[in-house]
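G., before I forget:
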Amino acid sequence: MTETNWSVPETEVVQRVHERLDAAGTDVLATVVDVEGNAYRRPGAKMLLDDDGPGVGSITAGCLEDELRAAATGVRERGEPETITYDLMEDEADVWGMGVGCNGVIDVLLEPLDETYRPAVEAFADGRDVAVLTVLSGGVDGFEYGDRVYYDPDDGGLVRPDGSPAEEWPHATLTSMADDLARRGRADTVTVDAGDGATLEVFVDGIAAPAELVVFGTGHDVGPVTELAAKNDFRVTVAGFRGGLDLADRFPDATRTVTTSPGSLEDDLQLDERTHAVVMTHNFVDDRLALETLLESPAPYVGLMGPRERFEEMLDAFADEGRVFAEDALESLYTPIGLDLGGGSPYQIAHSIVAEVLAVENDRTPRHLREREGHIHDRVDAAADVGAGPTPE
Amino acid sequence: MTETNWSVPETEVVQRVHERLDAAGTDVLATVVDVEGNAYRRPGAKMLLDDDGPGVGSITAGCLEDELRAAATGVRERGEPETITYDLMEDEADVWGMGVGCNGVIDVLLEPLDETYRPAVEAFADGRDVAVLTVLSGGVDGFEYGDRVYYDPDDGGLVRPDGSPAEEWPHATLTSMADDLARRGRADTVTVDAGDGATLEVFVDGIAAPAELVVFGTGHDVGPVTELAAKNDFRVTVAGFRGGLDLADRFPDATRTVTTSPGSLEDDLQLDERTHAVVMTHNFVDDRLALETLLESPAPYVGLMGPRERFEEMLDAFADEGRVFAEDALESLYTPIGLDLGGGSPYQIAHSIVAEVLAVENDRTPRHLREREGHIHDRVDAAADVGAGPTPE
């Protein structure tokens, strides 16, 4: 069992699906459609089972991959999709067996990769959010198991893989749900009313366009930020104000490199609400020129390297020019940049920056997950209190 | 100018210094000894200027590397150390020139790499904290610029590079400072009383042994955790309870791999207060067996993958066996594991885990650095208040 392609970024999984679709092979696509209990991945996680390769992507942490490969052979031969339920709830008797041991119940949709999946990969390649809607329960008049339509948030309607409107599908519930899931890149299964008292189970797989990270700067320290951001599924643009620096060679993990100027920055970068920016030119004036545009843009995250006093000097310089930023423009500014993790090496600095961008992108308050749920021994104490009555301080 | 070795982890820089010392070349070691203003790296940051290579490590984000290479040639020829001050405070006239632009004033010690540095790299290789003390001001009777002694926290004394006691050095201030800096891996310059009213300026460079991260588990998801932890300067041990899995091949970023059993876990792993642990076997019983030892160990961080309810079940199972953990044992437990960054891909999960370990290792409360200092517009508002008098709510 070859294992090299398990931990690729999600963006690469979708890109690989696109390539294999173009190659018109007989691959099988596996998608987690439902999860109960303690599973490693969420619904929507994908693994492509190449007809002749090791596969790419991950469904579990290694619990199911062999089983999936075997099941894929059957799906490939029959040419029909199939949903398989894997019950991984722990069997105590197996504790010292060789099984790696996993938890949870996972439903996986296995399907022959064919042209009905093309609108998803093309939307992804174009940087558009999309949702793939697949019927999981058959038997309702006019709907078969595996029937598929797409939701495009820009259009707002449901269309068949060939682009024709899917008028017979129940629109109201599905489009509002698909809209939300497509933008967030999340997936869920929903049961909808299909008329005449019948219900339809539909898997709604939202595939969000990857968020973009624009890194202003061309110093060595841009390298680790670019590398770690790409591994975390950002499309990374490295932007410099001066040409001739061979940016594409120096930052191989960047999706693109741009040599821009203050006047054309907006046109060159198409900043929107899915664009995040890190400003690290190490040049006071260059940083200011980048900020001037970024702070007025819809970018939800603008990180600025350097101590806070440096930004206060920039604000003074802006004020001298009569330039004052609205309060919500400063809401997007993160300086000093990064989460407070205490590291000082190039990779540690980059790790704290990318962690911060992830938190903002996902609208999270960065803190220990255990704090979000309350510390374990508070719960344990509380449980003990119930049994033993109030305890003194 | 070759740039490939700039962003290596710090551990690799020290390892490379060790290799080059063994090779007895004519390399030059550059160490940041002081920083004023806005610099990218802290004192103690190192760059090795090979006599025939591109160098390894980083002093700035690319602002000084060419100048350092030129200065190294002189140091190499003269065979004498030299401290050079680089004033990178911005020159506004250079804004549109080709300089990459940097801030701050940086003092760099350049020295021919020779046997006087061997105790530092050997301590590092042995996993011992060490401090290198170097005289930066000469002219005091008995002390020359560049004179060097070592502090070993286990011994508590100052010794010369040949191992003999450095009795003439002023011990009291230097040893307490060196002790603190060696353990924390930080560096600083101190002025000490050298007797007869004379003072001595000494650079104290603490080089802490890298912290260790033990990862319990052998699933695919261990790969990204191992990779990101190694980039962030942890020595990573991958530990499994079952043999025959070819762990070293599967986890090439691990410093070592161990097949252990519950009974020999403590002996195999030497858990101490610089050891952190991540438990991700995906097996309820294996996780419990690892936790049973880890929670009683001095390890400051024990992260457990899975929902919190799963650990509560473990506590119930422990309680059934009459096993109760002290409250401070549970202080080290982090479950669910990781910082709340919202990502769900293998790399995003690993990123949030390694970010959490870094924060605990460095004793930080994970949050936006801007929150630590108060949000910028609070300060701006406060400043405005001073000028304009109290503003209404």
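Chain B is about 35% helix and 20% strand. The first helix of chain B runs from residue 10 to 22.

More on Monday.
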